[in-house]
Specification:
CATH topology of the largest domain: Quinone Oxidoreductase, Chain A, domain 1
Bound molecules: NADP nicotinamide-adenine-dinucleotide phosphate
Distance between the termini: 13 Å
Radius of gyration: 20 Å
Order of helices and strands: EEEHEEEEHHEHEHEHEHEHEHEHE
Oligomer: single chain
Number of helices: 10
CATH class of the largest domain: Alpha Beta
Length: 337
Amino acid sequence: MKVMEMRDGWGVEHIKPGTRPERTPGPGEALVRMAAASVNFRDVVTARRGYGGHSGALPLIPLSDGAGTVLEVGPGVTRVKPGDLVCPAFFQTWISGPMKEEHRAGVLGGARDGVMQEYMLLPQEGLVKAPGGWSAVEAATLPCAALTAWSAVIGNGVKAGDAVVTQGTGGVSLFAAIFARMQGALAIVTSSSDEKLERAKAFGAALGINYKRQPEWSREVRQALGGRGADLIVELGGAGTLDQSLRAIRTSGTLALIGVLSGAAAELNLGRVVTQNVRLQGVTVGSRDAFEEMVRAFELHGAKPPIDDKRYAFDEVAAAITAIGEGRHFGKICIEF
Ligand SMILES: NC(=O)c1ccc[n+]([C@@H]2O[C@H](COP(=O)([O-])OP(=O)(O)OC[C@H]3O[C@@H](n4cnc5c(N)ncnc54)[C@H](OP(=O)(O)O)[C@@H]3O)[C@@H](O)[C@H]2O)c1
C-alpha cells in the first residue's frame, strides 16, 4: 500500500512516496481505507523535528488528522463496523479522564506513524465514528484542532453569557468560536485580515478585531465588554500575544494556553496573574471520550467545520504543510486521497 513518509531526513522536502506491506485486522483491530487528512501547525514543527523526542523516529508517516471508511474488522470488534466513517484519535491510548504522561507515546504523526497511508490498521479503541452525514474531508478536520478547541472552551466551563476571545482564523481558533456560540457565549475573533474576519462571522464570530491595525487589541475587547474583560481567552499566539491576553482577561478569568504561533518563550507579568487571580490552563488536545462528546454536539447543532478553499492531493502533503506555515489559509487545510 502507498504511504507518504520522511525516510532520509527531517523536513518537508524529505516527504516522499513509499510503500508498506498490507495487513489484515487481528483481534480488536479494524482496517480503515483512509480518504482524507488535514494539516495542523504542529505538523510544521514535527517535520522540523521541533518536538525533539516527541517527533518520533525515521521513517515517519506524517499528519495526525484523517478520516476513512472501515473496510474490515477483526474478531471481537464492537465499536465500529465495515462502512463506518471513522477518525483515528490523536492520542491513541488516552480514552478518558485527565492526560497522563504515557499517553504521549500514542500520538499519531509523531510518536507513531500518522495518517498519510492508503490503509490504517488500528485498535478499535483508537477510533471514533464521524458525525452522521459528514464527508471524509469534513471529518478529517476533527482529531486535533477541533478537539483542542473543545477542551479549551467546554473543558473550561464556558456558559451562556460568557465572552470568549480566540486568536486568528486558523483551525483551533475558528472551532473555538463555533463552540463558544454553541454554548450561548459571545465569540470575539482576532485576525490580521478584515476579509478573514468577515468570513469568521459564519463560524460564530460576533465581533472581529484586526490585531495588525490594533496591536493593543485588549482595549477593544474591554471596550466591547463594558470594561469587564473576557471570561476565557484561547491563547494561540504565545510569546507575541500573552501580554495582550493578560490585559484582556477579566479578574478570575481563564487563559487557555495552547499555541506558540509567535514563539514559545514568553515573558509573563506575574503581578497581573496573581493580583487578577488569573487561571492559566495548559491544553493538549483531549481524550477519546471528549472527542465523542464533541461529535454529538456537532450532530445536535448541525455545525460544520471551517475548511480552506484550496484542497491538496495525497502526494501534495509537503505543499499542504508548507502552506499552513505560511498562514494565508482560512480554517483547516485539507488533503483528499
Ligand atoms: N496544545 C495543543 O494541543 C494544540 C493543538 C492544536 C494546535 N496547537 C497550537 O495552536 C496554534 C494554532 O494551531 P492551528 O493548527 O489552529 O494553526 P493555524 O490553522 O495555522 O492558524 C494560524 C492562524 O493563527 C493566526 N495567527 C498567527 N500568528 C498570530 C498572532 N501572533 N496573533 C494572533 N493570531 C495569529 C493567523 O490567523 P490570521 O491569518 O487570521 O491572522 C494564522 O492564520 C499553533 O501554535 C499550534 O501549534 C496546540
